[in-house]
Amino acid sequence: MKKILNLVLLLTLALASHAQRVLTLDSCRALALANNKELRMSQEKVKAAHYEQKAAFTNFLPKIDVGGTYMRTQKEISLLSDAQKNAIGNVGTAVGGQLQQFGNQLQQIAVSHPELLPLLEPLSGVMGQLPGALNGVGQGIVDAFRTDTRNLYAGAATLTQPIFMGGKILAYNKITKYAEQLAASQHATGMQDVVMSTDQAYWQVISLVNKKRLAESFVELVRKLDSDVNKMLEEGVATQADALSVRVKVNEAEMALVQVEDGLSLSKMVLCQLCGLPLDTEIRLADEEMEDLALPDTFTESNVNTALANREELKSLELASKIYRQKVNVARAGYLPSIGLTASYLFSNPSLFNGFENKFRGTWGIGVVVTIPVFHWGENIYKVRAAKAEANIARYRLDDAREKIELQVTQNSYKVNEAAKKLAMAEKNMEKAEENLRYANFGFREGVIPTSNVLEAQTAWLSAQSGKIDAQIDLKMSEIYLNKSMGTLDMYTK
Length: 494
Hints:
Blueprint: H1 2-19, E1 21-23, H2 25-35, H3 37-57, E2 63-72, H4 82-89, H5 91-94, H6 96-112, H7 117-144, E3 151-164, H8 168-235, H9 240-275, E4 283-285, H10 304-310, H11 312-332, E5 338-349, E6 361-371, H12 379-446, H13 451-486
Parallel strand pairs: 1-4
Antiparallel strand pairs: 2-3, 3-5, 5-6
């Protein structure tokens, strides 16, 4: 039966350990970087800036556009008036009377001169057909002048090549290039912020795990003391006041344990949120079993020059300053002329290149467009001055950031040194507290030290142990803050 119970216990422990997810510091950082929504958005901003830079480069290249149109109109354009159309179309009828008079004259000539009759008879036949022929010719002329513009088709293919735009295209291309680098720098800054937040949450959990272990050991310690005092009370060698004092301390220790457990649960939820895991995920950190936190033997030496060279914030501000300087060039381009080459091919139906024809015909053309600003009431001057003021603001902001970073590095360096000294003092206090507790327990068993002194020794031991844990965490976080201020935290993202 005992073997079966042991087997069931082992299986239960195995299943519980399997259900928990073991996370190292590196895996927490990787999860946080992969699941952070802000980083995803900043990554998309980098992509957008990259494509904007590519789009800006196309302004150097020629552009080809094709357009077309169709229009149906109610009336067509007429080059001849209605009276002209009528006159031209009936020109044969108009001259018919004169031709008849001419025919009568020919008959009189034939009567007077019979010998001319063979010659005049063919001419008489032609005279009879001439009005109709002239009407046909006139109507043909009227039809030829018809435009038939009720269905109008037109189109154009245009090529435009900028030659000189006052430096605006070049400046804008540089602006988009700096904007892409700025987006990448801001993304790197966001990565460092996420990593540092993850480190804080991770070591907070480790700190609370150690404090929980400490609280559990302290509860066992005071419970044992409570048991010993109760036995001594039964033997008559302890007072009821001693028993009550110990019992109060037991209650305080148990309450402290509950508070640490609640804080640990909340800290793990915070870490899960940063890592993109469900808040109720059962996690266990790889460093939870460490008795003493691993600390570097030597601490990072503060170096302002290193910080000024590596801080992504400074890189972002330098890029912003460059962008504003290029904006000055964009504004200054308003003073300068712009020159462009244009070439086009135009076609239409009806076409006018060979009279009015219902055919698609076209022609090409090439030219140069020059625009010279002359007078705009000082608009360009004001724009240049405004752009220079913005550039000065960006430069002042950069100088201010450099000064603040220098101060920040110095402060974090002092904090590292202070944290190292506090840890050394905490370790010495811990040694003294352990020695005092050992003597107090020995004296209590021998009956030469009262219960109150034992409680004081235990409380001092708990305080010293808790102070040591806090000092270790403070030193580790101070080192992280110093690395962050120096811009060397990127080692944590690799």
